[in-house]
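Renewal narrative, Specific Aim 1. Our central claim is that a sequence can be written position by position from structural information alone. The example that follows is taken directly from our test logs and has not been curated for this report. It begins with the structure tokens describing the chain, in the order in which they were read.
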């Protein structure tokens, strides 16, 4: 066998080992996430909240209790979380929000939210209707506009 074939076989073996390892790690992480979602669903309660402010903040800047910061893994502390400052009854509380509904939560309005601990799972307006974002859609960057133009020329999108 030539040197090139040996090098290609070694690279192929390493890639196969990496794929197998990622498969088992992903399977374990998926199982852990399913358990956490089941626990969140079991503990959620409907609460009326007055939303004061919402921001994406780092964990240390969010004003969450020290227990939450200590129990978070070191690699997750650097990322930003969707934090919503709410008034729940007489208390002002910082809560972590689900990423999927963060943009739809209105500021300075009362909402009915399903809360599990300090985590907002879902939200509706005070009358129980589904929330829609009252923010204008984000402007597309240069790359997004270029893709849209190319799709229009190719016939994949209707022409404006």
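The sequence written for that structure reads:
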């Amino acid at each position: 066998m030539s040197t090139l074939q040996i090098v290609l076989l070694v690279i192929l073996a390493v890639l196969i080992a990496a794929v197998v390892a990622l498969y088992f790690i992903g399977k374990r992480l998926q199982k852990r996430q399913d358990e956490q979602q089941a626990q969140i669903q079991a503990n959620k309660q409907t609460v009326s909240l007055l939303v004061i402010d919402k921001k994406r903040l780092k964990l240390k800047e969010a004003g969450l209790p020290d227990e939450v910061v200590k129990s978070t893994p070191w690699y997750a502390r650097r990322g930003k979380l969707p934090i919503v400052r709410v008034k729940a009854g007489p208390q002002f509380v910082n809560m972590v929000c689900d990423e999927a509904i963060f943009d739809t939560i209105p500021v300075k309005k009362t909402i009915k939210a399903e809360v599990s601990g300090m985590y907002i799972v879902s939200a509706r307006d005070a009358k129980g209707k589904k929330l829609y974002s009252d923010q204008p859609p984000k402007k597309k960057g240069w790359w997004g506009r270029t893709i849209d133009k190319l799709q229009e020329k190719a016939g994949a999108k209707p022409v404006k």
